[in-house]
Design goal:
Blueprint: H1 2-27, H2 32-58, H3 64-67
Helix pairs in contact: 1-2
Length: 68
């Protein structure tokens, strides 16, 4: 169970880092279509993080107060 938590928490951390990295990369693009695509990718990473965070809550790794 602890190994699974470490793996899931590592994935959640990677998703968080991916959000800011994709926004930064999109900002450096030269056209609007690419810029918006990187925001879309960042939104997907937000969903990935939220899913991991919800899993932590359901597995009682975090409290309801921490989740909200």
């Amino acid at each position: 169970m602890i190994i699974e938590f470490k793996k899931t928490s590592g994935n959640a951390l990677d998703a968080c880092h991916s959000i800011s990295r994709n926004i930064a990369e999109g900002y450096c693009r030269r056209n609007l279509k690419e810029y918006l695509n990187f925001f879309n990718i960042s939104l997907g990473s937000c969903g990935e993080f939220h899913s991991s965070y919800y899993s932590f809550f359901k597995a009682d790794y975090i409290s309801k107060d921490e989740f909200e």
